[in-house]
Amino acid sequence: MPVQPTLDGTLPTTTLDYHTWADLIEPTFVTVAQTDREWTSYEIARDYDLPEPPKPATHWGSFVHRLARRGVIEHCGWDETVRPGGEHSGVKVWRGTRAAQAGRIA
């Protein structure tokens, strides 16, 4: 979701806290986990126009690890990020677990 700059040209700060943001984006990630797609968190955020978290540098990782602990997704490899400004750094690639793909995880 694009952010409208304020009149002075700065971007407004987010009003979402981590938990509200996570609750907002989780259904999208669960839906993707029910497919056989392999992905990075940035690809899902970009493809589904998801909002950035309050602290992007740490919250994306916390969020996907939360899904992994619940058995929704699993780590399946590494790739170079396509996130602008990411300098092609290494990022984890994820996929839905067999349970998620079978619809046994919500």
Tag the structure with descriptive keywords.
alpha+beta, 4 helices, 3 strands, 39% helix, globular
Order of helices and strands: HEHHEEH
Share of helix, binned: 25-40%
Within the largest sheet, what's the order of strands?
1-3-2
Overall geometry comes to globular
Assigned CATH superfamily: Winged helix-like DNA-binding domain superfamily/Winged helix DNA-binding domain
Biggest β-sheet, characterized? 3 strands, antiparallel
Mean pLDDT: 90
Unreliable runs, pLDDT <50, ≥5 residues? none
Explain the overall architecture.
The protein is of the alpha+beta class and about 110 residues long. The protein has one domain (about 20-100): Arc Repressor Mutant, subunit A (Orthogonal Bundle). The chain contains 4 helices and 3 strands, in the order αβααββα. It has helices spanning about 20-35, 40-45, 55-70, 100; strands at about 40, 75-80, 90-95. Strands 1-3-2 form a 3-stranded antiparallel beta sheet. The radius of gyration is 15 Å and the shape is globular. The protein starts with 17 loop residues before the first helix and ends in a 5-residue tail after the last helix. The mean pLDDT is about 90.
